[in-house]
Amino acid sequence: MTIPTGRTSAAGPSADTRTGATALLVVDVQRGLVDAGPWAADEVLGNIAALIAACRGAGVEVVHVQHDGQPGEPEEPGTHGWEIHPAVRPAPGEKLVRKRFNSAFRGTDLLDHLRAREIGRLIVIGMQTEYCIDTTCRVAFEHGFRLVMPEMTNTTLDSGELTGRQIQEHFNRRIFAGRFASAPTMTDALRIIEEAGRAEGDAA
C-alpha cells in the first residue's frame, strides 16, 4: 500500500462537479464544545462562518449536525451547551440532523437526505477532529461521497498528553488529506463553492 504524504489539490477529483451536487456539512459546532476552548477556536469558527455564508450566497446546500449528549454531558439536549453556536446557527429552511453517535449517518436520515438531493460531494467541517469529524469523514467516504476538508475548518480539545493542535494537525495532515479528502486552503474552498453554485445553477 502506498501511503500518501502530501495533500491533494483542490483542483483534483474533489473539485469535479460533474457527478452530483455539493453540500456543506457543519458538524457539532455547539456552545458546549466551543466554550470548552478548542485549539484556534476563533480562527476555525470564523472560517466555518465564512464557508456557510459563501454557500448561502452561491445556492449550495448547508446541512447542520447537532449532537445529542447523554444526561449530564455538555451537549445534553435542551441545555445551553447543546445549542448550536450563534455564529453558525442554521438559517430558516436549512436541514438539521440530530445524532447520538460519532457518525452523522448512524441512526439519522442524513444519507437518505443527501441521496434525495443528489449530493455527490461533501465539504465536511466542524468538531471534534478525532471523534465526529473523523468518523463522519470515513463513513461518508465509504458511501462514495467525494470529500473536501478545507484547512483550519475543524478543531478539537486537548486530550491526555496531546494538545488540541497536535491532534488536529495529525488528523488533517496525515489521515484526512490524500486518503479520504482534498484539503484546500480557504481561498480555494471558497472558489470551489462559487464554482459549485454556478454548476448547479446551470443544471437547473
Largest sheet: 7 strands, parallel
Strand content: 15-25%
H/E topology pattern: EHHEEHEHEEHEH
Detail the poorly predicted runs. Answer: 1-18
Which architecture would the CATH scheme give at its second level? Answer: 3-Layer(aba) Sandwich
Structural class: alpha/beta
In one word, what is the shape? Answer: globular
Work out the count of structural domains.
1
Assign the CATH class.
Alpha Beta
Q: Report mean pLDDT, rounded to a whole number.
A: 92
Computed Rg: 16 Å
Fold-level CATH name: Rossmann fold
Defining traits:
single chain, 204 residues, alpha/beta, Rossmann fold, 7-stranded parallel sheet, 7 strands
Characterise the protein shown here:
- The protein has 6 helices and 7 strands, in the order E-H-H-E-E-H-E-H-E-E-H-E-H.
- With 204 residues, the chain is α/β, with parallel strands linked by helices.
- It has one domain: Rossmann fold (3-Layer(aba) Sandwich), CATH 3.40.50.
- Strands 1, 2, 3, 4, 5, 6 and 7 form a 7-stranded parallel β-sheet that branches.
- Strand 4, helix 4 and strand 5 form a beta-alpha-beta unit.
- Helix 2 packs parallel to helix 6.
- The longest helix is centred in the N-terminal third of the chain and has 18 residues.
Brief rundown of the structure:
The protein has 204 residues and is an alpha/beta fold.
What's the SSE blueprint?
Elements (H helix, E strand, L loop, with lengths): L20 E7 L3 H5 L5 H18 L2 E7 L27 E5 L10 H7 L2 E9 L1 H14 L3 E3 L5 E2 L8 H13 L4 E2 L3 H18 L1
Parallel strand pairs: 1-2, 1-4, 2-3, 4-5, 4-6, 5-7
Helix pairs in contact: 2-6, 4-5
